Amino acid sequence: MKKSPIALLTLTLLFSCQGPQPSQSEDAASPPEAEEAHAHDHADHATGASMDPSSEYMQVPDSAYVEFLNLSDGDSVDSPFRVEMGAVGMEVRPAGEMVVGTGHHHLLVDMDAMEAGALIPNDESHLHFGLGQTETDVELSSGTHRLTMQFANGGHFSYGAGMSSSITLHVR
Ligand SMILES: [Cu+2]
Fold first, then answer.
1. Which of 158, 79, 84 is nearest to 114 (CA)?
2. 80 Cα: distance to centroid of ligand 1 (angstroms)
3. 5-17+61-171 CATH
4. Is the pLDDT of residue 37 over 50?
5. Domain boundaries, the chain
6. How far is the CA of 170 from the centre of ligand 1 (A)?
7. Which residues pair with 88 in a beta bridge?
């Protein structure tokens, strides 16, 4: 499905906020197992909440991956800059509901992939795109930064390095 440039711009304007994402849909989550009951509560990340990587909600097809569509490793950019996030082999879907084979994008600033099953914190260096966004504008200080795209399931549990992509950017 192709979106018109106007539609993309509108989406970007609506969702370009880099702060914690609204979590209105997360309250509707129905954790599949008792141990995941706190998955929707980011305040719990400090307790090391995680999901068993053998859970059906952690399964990833071998052929699936994520990619930066408009940026390459080593690029120099002016801040703020556009980031277009692609997912192949898994469906992008808003956070809040666990559905096998789906998830949403995250951008991790100055870090690499999070291990499979780890709950992704919600703070200024862990950006969630829980509305299902596939592009955003990112603002970074000048200098060299590591930017990691990390796919995670509806409860924000990382799908691991296999569903991540990392690049180094030089911000002017
Ligand atoms: Cu998330």
1. 158
2. 22
3. 2.60.40.10
4. no
5. 5-17+61-171
6. 26
7. 65
Q: Is the per-residue pLDDT at 38 higher than 50?
A: no
Question: What 3 state SS string does 64-86 have?
Answer: CEEEECCCCCCCEECCCEEEEEE
pLDDT tens digits along 134-143: 999 999 999 9
CA of 159 to the centre of ligand 1 (A): 11
Between the CA of 128 and the centroid of ligand 1 the distance, in Å, is 4
- Measured in Å, residue 5 CA sits from the centre of ligand 1 at 26
Give the SS3 label for residue 104.
strand
The answer to whether the beta carbons of residues 88 and 78 sit under 8 Å apart is no
* Residue in 32, 20, 82 with CA at minimum distance from that of residue 59: 32
